[in-house]
Specification:
The chain is of the alpha+beta class. It contains 6 helices and 5 strands. It starts with 14 loop residues before the first strand and ends in a 6-residue tail after the last helix.
């Protein structure tokens, strides 16, 4: 029996999960199909030390609607915040499980932002990178000298429904290079390598002059 389709911009179902990561991944997967994304906004602890985390809605756009109407406003800022009239919480329970629950903040139930494609959210693209082993493919291609444009074509052909963009490929490559340099900048990494090489020559009795 096929599952019923997810309603656009609807809330994820309440329920219990074995860990916060399991809860957040389930909520994020639901949000991807419903047209938005979640971010973790803040967390608090009660007297018993149990944690409550707030999951904030994120819309796929930069529109900024200031509360103060000022036609002479100089700064035209942008935001991903949705200011949605519901709050979604992740609460740690005595059993060690985590509960996903809702709290309505206003009397309205109207949505205040349009439906967005999952590709508009870096959160959903990161989920694909981690869940489908895409990072390994990107790094393998990079090591073998395959350009990012070719890697993108391969991913689109091999992974049906892929939402990755060029920026994601470059970010994976940049992270790999940073880790290879020991988190040092390119200049510092070069200096460090030269110093190591010079020290090795001195140990081996090779003149550096």
């Amino acid at each position: 029996m096929s599952s019923s389709p997810i309603e656009s911009l609807s809330l994820p179902p309440t329920g219990f999960y074995p860990s916060f990561n399991a809860l957040f991944n389930a909520a994020q997967a639901y949000a991807a199909s419903a047209g938005y994304a979640f971010t973790t906004e803040r967390s608090t602890k009660n007297r018993q030390g149990r944690v409550k985390k707030t999951l904030s809605y994120k819309k796929g756009g930069h529109d900024f609607k200031p509360k103060v109407k000022d036609i002479n406003r100089i700064r035209q800022r942008s935001t991903f915040k949705a200011d949605y009239p519901f709050l979604v919480y992740a609460k740690e329970r005595l059993t060690g499980q985590w509960e996903l629950c809702h709290s309505q903040t206003t009397t309205t139930k109207e949505y205040n932002h349009p439906l967005s494609n999952p590709q508009a959210f870096a959160e959903h693209r990161r989920r694909e990178l981690n869940a489908r082993g895409v990072s390994t493919i990107i790094i393998t291609h990079y090591i073998n000298g395959i350009p990012a444009s070719r890697t993108a074509s391969v991913l689109r052909s091999q992974l049906e429904g892929s939402i990755l963009i060029y920026r994601d490929i470059y970010n994976v490559i940049s992270k790999y290079n940073r880790e290879a340099r020991g988190a040092a900048s390119p200049a510092k990494a070069l200096i460090r390598d030269l110093e190591v090489e010079e020290a090795a020559k001195k140990i081996n009795g090779v003149s550096t002059t």
